[in-house]
Amino acid sequence: MIQFTTFIKMVLQKTQKLSRLRSLGIVTVGATALYMGLTAYHNQDQLFRTFVMPAVRLLPAETSHNLAVLACKYRLYPASKYTDDLNLHSSFFGRLASNPIGIAAGFDKNGEAVLGLKDLGFGFIEVGSVTPLAQAGNPKPRVFRLVSDRALINRYGFNSDGHGVVAQRLKEIREREDFNAIVGVNLGRNRDTLTPINDYVKGVHTFGPVADYLVVNVSSPNTKGLRNMQSKKELTELLEAVNIARGQLKTNQKVPILLKLSPDLETGELNDIVAVINQKKCRVDGLIVSNTTVARDNISDPALASEAGGLSGEPLRERSTRLIAQMYSLTKGSLPIIGVGGVASGQHAFEKIEAGASFVQIYTALIYEGPELVERIKGELSLRISELGYACVKDAVGSNYTKYLPSSK
Ligand SMILES: Cc1cc2nc3c(=O)[nH]c(=O)nc-3n(C[C@H](O)[C@H](O)[C@H](O)COP(=O)(O)O)c2cc1C
């Protein structure tokens, strides 16, 4: 393995010295060889974990991210041949999802990789966050790998192609004959907007007709003032406006609206949020729990821990599961929850489900483990569900939520 990574490092150093044209040639030949290798190799899971992902980690984190999006965009990964077990089939806001595992927001920010992500076997795909006007986001570097903690810190700051471009992409994808994915759109707001609520209202109008669900994201830590929109007064105004906007849609009127929460909310703030969404005018159809955290619990590298931004991956896992259980308890199980934060195995996904989640999303673990992770999680989850005697995922939702409530710790 050391020899392999040294070799790749050498190739990269050499490549920098070559002319751009020759570099392009090398990249093209390399990508073709990789694709042929992937198609031919019988144990892709091991190939990814042992060679491909460590090699990809030699590149800067954002470059790797962009390459992964490109690989999905051009559908370089072979489509998964895995058939989802019947016990994974889930009703997803009125649609049938063949499994409850989705890709979280932030991977495919601009709706370029939808078909490739569907090929990997995800049951649903969340695009975004998308902002009304295109914006560049924060200065680079803005994504950091915390390898030994299986974590990432990012402060992208909503880099986005903007509503118009992303909506057009989604419209074209949906018009394809072979389109059969469930695609949600996560709505953000522009950094310098003077009318933040209106940014979300525009999002509902633009994406309502081309999305299977919408997410009101007021929980990313990298846009100043954004998380204050989770406070009682601001959230009430926001959700009321979003509900009115949905009511004005001509098509797809009942597009489900979900609210994505921060894992750093205090109990009092959670109670306030529940009081807001219990009002008819501010109703949401589901919750996404959770976004990244600004906490830095149990990080082994103090220099990286001091980078500003949202922490995701393993160090977030228990915190987000606790919040799922709290929200399941506070809403009395009345709202579907998408559980997200640090899921890297079927057991982790099951913990989110028994804490109260009906669906699960992943992101950071995919960066470390590679695309085969999707099949692995599905296989392990299906086995766990049947071992415990449940007929389907739905029967296990919230089955052990008290175990994860903070007071029972
Ligand atoms: C690089 C990166 C970018 C992200 N961008 C967004 C985003 O634009 N909008 C959003 O709602 N969440 C975003 N997230 C948060 C994820 O959707 C997810 O909530 C969080 O990473 C926890 O899941 P994980 O531990 O499986 O990564 C981002 C996460 C990462 C790692």
From TrEMBL:
<feature type="transmembrane region" description="Helical">
    <location>
        <begin position="21"/>
        <end position="41"/>
    </location>
</feature>
<protein>
    <recommendedName>
        <fullName>Dihydroorotate dehydrogenase (quinone), mitochondrial</fullName>
        <ecNumber>1.3.5.2</ecNumber>
    </recommendedName>
</protein>
<dbReference type="Pfam" id="PF01180">
    <property type="entry name" value="DHO_dh"/>
</dbReference>
<dbReference type="GO" id="GO:0006207">
    <property type="term" value="P:'de novo' pyrimidine nucleobase biosynthetic process"/>
</dbReference>
<dbReference type="InterPro" id="IPR013785">
    <property type="entry name" value="Aldolase_TIM"/>
</dbReference>
<dbReference type="GO" id="GO:0106430">
    <property type="term" value="F:dihydroorotate dehydrogenase (quinone) activity"/>
</dbReference>
<keyword id="KW-0285">Flavoprotein</keyword>
<keyword id="KW-0809">Transit peptide</keyword>
<dbReference type="GO" id="GO:0044205">
    <property type="term" value="P:'de novo' UMP biosynthetic process"/>
</dbReference>
<keyword id="KW-0560">Oxidoreductase</keyword>
<keyword id="KW-0496">Mitochondrion</keyword>
<dbReference type="InterPro" id="IPR050074">
    <property type="entry name" value="DHO_dehydrogenase"/>
</dbReference>
<keyword id="KW-0812">Transmembrane</keyword>
<dbReference type="InterPro" id="IPR005719">
    <property type="entry name" value="Dihydroorotate_DH_2"/>
</dbReference>
<feature type="domain" description="Dihydroorotate dehydrogenase catalytic">
    <location>
        <begin position="88"/>
        <end position="382"/>
    </location>
</feature>
<dbReference type="InterPro" id="IPR001295">
    <property type="entry name" value="Dihydroorotate_DH_CS"/>
</dbReference>
<keyword id="KW-0288">FMN</keyword>
<comment type="pathway">
    <text>Pyrimidine metabolism; UMP biosynthesis via de novo pathway; orotate from (S)-dihydroorotate (quinone route): step 1/1.</text>
</comment>
<keyword id="KW-1133">Transmembrane helix</keyword>
<dbReference type="InterPro" id="IPR005720">
    <property type="entry name" value="Dihydroorotate_DH_cat"/>
</dbReference>
<keyword id="KW-0999">Mitochondrion inner membrane</keyword>
<dbReference type="GO" id="GO:0005743">
    <property type="term" value="C:mitochondrial inner membrane"/>
</dbReference>
<keyword id="KW-0472">Membrane</keyword>
<comment type="similarity">
    <text>Belongs to the dihydroorotate dehydrogenase family. Type 2 subfamily.</text>
</comment>
